[in-house]
Amino acid sequence: MKILVIRFSSIGDILLTFPVVESLRHQYPDAEIHFLTKPSNKAVLELLSNKVEPRFLQDSLVQTAKQLSGERYDLVIDLHNNLRTFLLQVLLMKRAWHRFRKLNFQKWLFTAFKWNTLPKVHVVDRYAQAASVSPASVTLSVSDTINGEESLPSTYVAWVLGATFATKQFPLSKLIETIERLEMPIVLLGGEMENTLANSLQAHFPSLISLVGKTSLSEAALVLSKAKVVVTNDTGLMHLAAFYAKPIVCLWGNTVPAFGMYPYQSAPVFHAQVSDLSCRPCSKIGHNTCPKGHFACMLKQDSGMISEQITALFFQEK
User: Fold this and answer.
1) Which residues are 165's β-sheet partners?
2) Measured distance CA(310)–CA(92) in Å, rounded
3) 1, 84, 133, 242: which could form a disulfide with 31 (CB 3.0–4.6 Å)?
4) Do the first three CATH levels of 2-131 and 157-314 match, i.e. the same topology?
5) Tens of pLDDT along 17-56?
6) What is the pLDDT of residues 216-243, one digit of tens each?
7) What average pLDDT does the chain have?
8) Greatest pairwise CA separation for the chain in angstroms
9) pTM over 0.90
């Protein structure tokens, strides 16, 4: 038996499919599972301990269809569901095609008119409904060490600085306000684009340990797995941290947990957000600048309350 799972987009979107992929593995133990995604997501798929066969989008859908046409898939789980995947179904002439409902109209109502008609169901559970399975626990394959770096503190907070869009990123002024109230080791994570932000923070707080731009995805997973608390924007590493059931403090800007893409875990999660803004959520993804010009969804965050939550989670008894 051959199964094809389809999901493009970003790191976080791919990570959120893993409980479904693992469930398919359990339900069909002898199946060969292929995963169609963007070439840039190769490292994400490599995190799965139970490996899948990666299949990558080509320069055109026709080329992609040619790549897949000889596989004769028995089951296709389309967790992306857009025009490209519809055309791919046509090109492959597959009738049996299980689609995930993206609810784009409901998201538009929410962002445009603040009318929330979205189901109170996590996207992982909705993925599972599309695949007719129950989400399974996931085991990841991660690095044993961080190449070229000193060993991590015995206990620390892992702080994820990055986000694809600026309106999802906790700004420098709020970072300083929050971190100056904290008294525990902090390890910074992020991509190379966050180097300037990390350097500015280290100028204020020389004791911060910055691994920004220095870790692979697998090494970042190691840092998250050993952290006592994770502080993060709405970004891919937030979902990666959830696999380790760490206490998480989520810093929400223009997006909201009600979209159903909050950390999928039973461990404590604190959602830091400015809930009384009439302009929020303004996008299901994000913007490079605040459409209103005030960026109140982040600049009005309560730094004192956030620092108290981080402290409480860090020093709580297990």
Assistant:
1) none
2) 50
3) 1
4) yes
5) 999 999 999 999 999 999 999 999 999 999 999 999 999 9
6) 999 999 999 999 999 999 999 999 999 9
7) 95
8) 60
9) yes
Token pair, residue 225, equals: 């797995």
Rounded CA gap, 210 and 207, in Å?
9
Which pLDDT score, from 0 to 100, does residue 122 have? 98
Q: Are 227 and 187 contacting, i.e. CB atoms less than 8 angstroms apart?
A: yes
For the chain, give every domain's residue range: 2-131, 157-314
Closest CA to 47 of 21, 29, 75, 73: 21
Select the CATH number that applies to the domain covering 2-131 from these four: 3.90.850.10, 3.60.21.10, 3.90.1010.10, 3.40.50.2000.
Answer: 3.40.50.2000
Angle CA(205)–CA(314)–CA(267) in degrees, nearest 5?
130
Q: Quick check: 267 pLDDT over 70?
A: yes
Six-digit token string for 116: 């929330």
Measured CA to CA, the distance from residue 179 to residue 170 in angstroms comes to 12
CATH code of the domain occupying 157-314: 3.40.50.2000
